[in-house]
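Subject: sequence -> C-alpha cells, single chain

Hey, anyone have a minute? Need the predicted structure for the following. Not urgent.
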Amino acid sequence: MEEQPSTARLALKWGVISGVISMVYTTALYISGQFTNTALTWLSLVISVVLIVMAMREYRSLNNGFMSYGEGLSLGTLLTVIGALIATTYNFIYTTFIDTTIRQQVLDQARANMEDQGMSDEQVEQAIELAQRLQSPGLQFLFGILVSAFFGLLISLVVAAFLRRNKPFGELS
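Reply:
Had a minute. Here:
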C-alpha cells in the first residue's frame, strides 16, 4: 500500500516558494517605485493562482492522479498562509528598517488619489488620519495575513473544484 502524500509538506514547500517569489517581486516594485501601481500589485494575485495550481497538480500526481476537494482546499489555503507569513514579515522588515519612506509615499499617493476624486480637504484629512492609524506595523502584519488567507481560500475554492479528481467509489487508499 502506497503512502499518501502530505498536504502539509507540499503546502510548506509551495508556501516557501510563494513567499520568496513575493519577496523578490515586492523588492522589484519598491526599487522601481511602482509599488503604488495597482495594476502591478494585482499581478501578485495571478502569481498566487499559478502557484496554487502547480501545488495542487503536484499533489495530484503524487497521489496516483487523485485529489479530493478538501485536500485541494486545505493545500491551497495553507500554502497561501505560509507564503503570507514570509512575505508579510519581509515587508515589515523592509518598510521598518530598509526603506522607511515607503509608508509615507503610500499615504502621499492615497492623498493625491482622493484629491483627484474631488474629496474635500476635511474628508481627505480624516481618511489619511485613519490610514495612518492602520499603518502600524502590527496591524499591517495582521491584515496582511488575514487578507492573504482570505484570497488564498477563495482561489483555492475555485482551483480545487477544477483540479479535484476523486478516487472511484469503493477503491481504498
